[in-house]
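Could you show me some protein's one-letter sequence and the numbers that encode its backbone in two labelled lines?

___
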Amino acid sequence: MAEPSRSAPHAFRWITFVGNFIGAVVAFLYFRVVDYAVVTTPKPIEVAYSLVIFALLIAVGSRLTERWLRPLSRAAELDRLPAKGAGLVRRRVLLFPYFLAGVVFTGWVLAGLIWGVLLRLPGGTLTLHEALRQIFGTTVIAGGVTTAFIFFAAERVWRRRLPEFFPAGDLSSVTGVPRLAVRVRLIAISLLIGVVPLAVLGMLAYTRALDLLGADAATASGIVDGLRVSILFLLAAGLAAAIGLSIFAANSVAGPLRDVEAAMAEVERGRLDGHCVVVGTDEIGAVAEGFNRMLHGLRDRERVKETFGRYVTPEVRDEILAGRITGEGELKEATILFADLRDFTPWVEATEPHQVVRELNEYFTEMAEAIRAHRGLVLQFIGDEIEAVFGAPVAHGDHARLAVGAALEMRRRLAAWNAWREREGKPRFRHGIGIHTGTVLAGSIGGAERLSYALVGDPVNLASRIQGLTKEFKVDILISDATRRRLDGDFTLEELPTVHVKGRAEDVTVYKVV
């Protein structure tokens, strides 16, 4: 990062030089064309005094500017500075255009007093009326134009440096800084465009009227002809200045608005990692800051949404965020799937704990992807068991077919994973899957501090019992008769003998998925 204390003064020396040069030209033309009556041919000593005083004013202004900018060289370590030091740096950053304009205007006030009063005192030839006219032309006209030019030019250049000190765009957090509103800015420029030319024309008319007093016809005719030329010149100069200031004012407002518009377009495209550069403390800067806060909130919401989806799956997340899942619950026909690992306890006892967690997570990842691929929802992982549902919370008319398809996908994934494990010299995994279809109560269940999407009802218990029957029948996938009736012959099934399960009075017919 470039140090402002080294690079900034160079740029602002040029701005100050050009601005003061413009002011000197304005002063020269003013006292040669508009109010030449108060200007006399300078003596050599006066020229020498003027050069010394001018050099002294420039040197003092440059010295003050460099001292003001010195703390800004610590921009790279701003985050490590104490709060008071960081606040001083940021405050000086925002005040710099005002400070520079204040130094310049103070110099022109002193110039008006020095050239209009002090250098005239030894001769005693300057009246109070003439002194005021000299101060008006030097300080108000030339100084005003110079100060306005340097302020707006310095502000424009300085805006490019603001992100170095405010990477988060929090300009409004700095206290004690004037807020130059857009309305005030435009009014100030309008006054410069309207009042200064009118004041110059008024002074021109006044001085020429004084010249006409007591003048003969030939002299009066020459004064009028000269007045015509002066008015045309002032109109041309005023028009050029008005166009330049108008373009400058428009760009100072339109530029930041274009940045906000571009940032909004990025958000519209779904890109939330952007940032709108804040380059002012006015209303446009406030809009940019508000936009960044909104963007930060959107990123937080997406982050919460993504993290939330890892815990409750994206389907449940979206249903909850949309307000379609309530605490009261609702009755839904769904298909429930339970999957359980075989010989899990002996394997855990013989395996290092970190390896158990790692390999169990690998298994769960493979099985969860198979379930999600068939629009299923993993409700929970219980030890080595998976509980999943199809048809809730998002309804699907073919939830039974999706559940059986997911079970077959789980079978294929487990076979592929076991093949890899055998190549690594690891034992194979086996599991049993039970599937049943029925009407359940689905909703958010839990306490005041924590809720989970869960299913309640006899079909859930029966699906778990059917999963347990896979051990008895030595198969990996069993489905109930209720699930079979909703499959429409999409799968090859083998009916097994009816069996009694705990908690039910009637025997249960189950089918092996071949």
Q: What stands out?
A: DSSP finds 13 helices and eight strands in the chain. The first helix runs from residue 4 to 34. The first strand starts at residue 330 and ends at 341. The chain has a mean pLDDT of 80.
